[in-house]
Design goal:
Blueprint: E1 7-9, E2 16-18, H1 36-52, H2 54-73, H3 81-98, H4 106-128, H5 146-167
Antiparallel strand pairs: 1-2
The structure holds zinc ion.
Zinc ion is lined by residues 10, 12-13, 15, 48, 52-53.
């Protein structure tokens, strides 16, 4: 373990802070208490944002209240759809902000998978044949191959379905103060 503290830079103004040499306690698990030196360092960072970047600090506080709202509402069951929708909106909003990465180029990836699959399938068929074609030229799949196009479409659909389930893009409009249900869903009756 290095004795030299690793610098932590504010991305808003470039100011550098030096935390505990042992790092920020990334090995922490839920329920464990952070070491006092680490807490002290995080407090330094909080104080900096509050003093030097009040707008960002305000936003952090507003976003923190979403997490608090979701956690509190998760302890209630209700037949009131407004309660369950509000809870779901908080959950969705937190989820959108903490997604590590969003899936991209699904169709390109689907085409690669489809092409490789069809290539393998045709090579296997070819190797079964007793004639001269066996073991001959490598199998290629043309860009306009109908089987590949069909399979690409199926895989793209499956990947897009998975993306919808995992990322939930557009379930609500984040800029709006109140949740807006996605197309086809029952309209929200949340008060403003
Ligand atoms: Zn700063």
């Amino acid at each position: 373990m290095s004795e030299i503290a690793t610098p932590t830079r504010c991305t808003l103004c470039g100011r550098t802070f030096y935390g505990p040499a042992a790092g920020l306690g990334l090995e922490l698990r839920a329920g464990e208490e952070a070491p006092p030196r680490m807490m002290h360092f995080v407090n330094e960072l909080i104080k900096h944002i509050a003093a030097a970047h009040p707008a960002e600090f305000q936003l952090s506080m507003a976003k923190a209240s979403e997490l608090q709202g979701w956690m509190i509402l998760s302890h209630f069951s209700s037949d009131d759809r407004r309660v369950t929708e509000q809870r779901d909106y908080f959950r969705w909003s937190i989820h959108q902000q903490t997604l590590n990465v969003r899936a991209q180029n699904l169709e390109t990836r689907a085409r690669q998978i489809a092409t490789e699959f069809i290539q393998g399938q045709r090579a296997a068929e070819l190797s079964e044949r007793p004639d001269a074609a066996r073991g001959a030229a490598t199998v290629t799949v043309a860009a306009d191959d109908e089987d590949a196009a069909h399979l690409t479409m199926l895989i793209t659909d499956a990947l897009e379905d998975l993306q919808q389930i995992l990322e939930e893009p557009g379930r609500y409009q984040p800029a709006d103060p109140e949740p807006i249900p996605k197309k086809g869903a029952t309209p929200s009756v949340l008060p403003s």
